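[09:14] KT: can someone run the structure on this one? pasting the chain below
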Amino acid sequence: MKLVFALFTGVVFGTGIALSGMMDPAKVLNFFDLAGSWDPSLAFVMGGALVVAGVGYRLVWRRNAPLFGGRFQVPTGTDIDMKLVGGSALFGIGWGIAGFCPGAAIPALGTGRWEVALFLAAVILGFWLRRVLAPLGQPRATS
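[09:31] RB: done, structure tokens below
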């Protein structure tokens, strides 16, 4: 049942992304083009998502536990460190260059455009590089 609900959630998300036009990188890039052909529709999509999420959170937090899990998985860290700032900057730069964020690129795979596959391949490569390079930055244990 958990997988069925996850599939349903993904279909609803992908449908919303498709209906809003956010699978089109030109539409997203026009949002960032303040001096040219600025398109505010991304702000409306994000605002609508915030309203829906706000209502959803208010309803969910009334429950003692999630429907399909033992407990709520809530992050406890509150530190703003260089890893967070750097990762956020990298995400924003990639979004501004490609016109895709990973969440919108996954449903956009259905368009068959090679740019989407290339973008997601770069995202996966970035995840892999982070996993490979992270231990190099850790201090060595002394015995």
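[09:33] KT: thanks! Residues 2-137 form one domain.
[09:34] RB: yep, looked fine to me
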